[in-house]
Each structure stands twice: as structure tokens, then as C-alpha cells.
Amino acid sequence: MPSKNLVQELEQTIENIADFPIPGIQFKDITPIFLKPALYESVIDEFVQFSKGKVDAVCGIESRGYLFGIAIAVALEVPFILIRKKGKLPPPFVSEKYELEYGFSEIEMREGQIKAGQRVLIHDDLLATGGTTEAAARLVEKQGAKASQFSFLIGLKDLHGEDKLRKFNAEVFRILEY
Ligand code: AMP
């Protein structure tokens, strides 16, 4: 459980921008966290405590999932693997398609970076509808590894992203909920 002080400081630091990038969206800008190194360190500590001894690799989702993901993996002394949007990685790579509100999207990962049997933490900055995270977990599991944990800085309650993750029987952690 994150301390009340940490949650409070994060709430005061993260900026809410109404109607960005389109009307109706409450955009959470996490960039002010990176102006406060001590706060950043406390966030990493929180994520590390959640995953310590429980995962063999960390996957971060492009691009804000890299901001905390690499630091978490280094602290846990496990590999960090980038999950990228389509078209950014050289071959060989493995990919997974997923449905958006309109149309499809695709994510990719270098082939061979995940090993069969590994317990994997999938990390992103924010859990919204859960579509991207669910596809990331499928990408991990089709390579014989297990999506055993999910962590996010922020979860948006009203979008019920967690429903999409339930089938993986994994632990889910968010530091903040809106
Ligand atoms: P989803 O697949 O719907 O769970 O979308 C998650 C991704 O979209 C995350 O990587 C976030 O960075 C981004 N995102 C979605 N909604 C917001 C929001 N309200 N504020 C900031 N980022 C968002």
C-alpha cells in the first residue's frame, strides 16, 4: 500500500488537462514528476516493493511505460524489454493485434528477448480501457511466458480496464486511482 503522503504528493504534482487531446478526455500529465527526483525515487521504490522476488523480467509499454519501467527492472536486477508500436523495431520481432474503438492497432517486441517460463511484470504509466495492456499480456504469453503482474502509476476507475486483465490471473497494482 502506498503511503498517504506519497499519494498526496503525486495528486498535487500530476496535472489534469481537460479536453485533451480530444473533447471529453481528462488527460493526466505525469511529466512534473520528473522535475522532482526524490518523488520519482519514491515511486520507483513503491513499484519495486510490489514486484520484488516475483518476476523474472519487466516489459514496458511505449512510451510512458519506459519512464518508470527501466528503473524498476534495474532495481529488481531483471531484464527490461520494450514493447513498441508497429513499425519501429527491426526484424525479427513478434507482434500482436488489438482492437481500438475504431480500427486496429499492433504492438511488437524483439523475438527471443522473453524466455518461455518467465514470470513477467507488464508496466505502463496509466491503465485506461486496458486494451493495450491486454494485448501486451497476450504477446508475452504467446511466447510461453506468464504475465504474472501488472503495475501502473494511475488507474482510471470508470473505464474498467481491470476487467480485461482478469483472465490472466495476475496481481494488479496502481499507486493512484481517479
Ligand atoms: P488503454 O489501452 O486504453 O488502457 O490506454 C492506455 C494508454 O493510453 C497509456 O499508455 C496512457 O499513456 C494513454 N492514456 C489513456 N488515457 C489517458 C489519459 N486520460 N491521460 C493520459 N494518458 C492516457
Order of strands across the main sheet:
5-6-4-3-7-8-9
Structural class: alpha/beta
Structural Rg: 16 Å
* Beta-strand percent range: 25-35%
Largest sheet: 7 strands, mixed
Q: Could you report the average pLDDT, rounded to the nearest whole number?
A: 97
Number of strands: 9
Task: Tell me about this structure.
- This protein has helices spanning 4-13, 37-51, 65-76, 131-141, 161-165; strands spanning 15-18, 26-29, 57-61, 80-85, 93-99, 104-110, 119-127, 146-155, 171-177.
- The chain is globular.
- The strands form two sheets. It has a seven-stranded mixed sheet, with helices on both faces. Strands 1-2 form a two-stranded antiparallel sheet.
- The chain is of the alpha/beta class and 178 residues long.
In short:
By secondary structure, the chain is of the alpha/beta class. It is built from five helices and nine strands. Helix 2 crosses helix 3 (65-76).
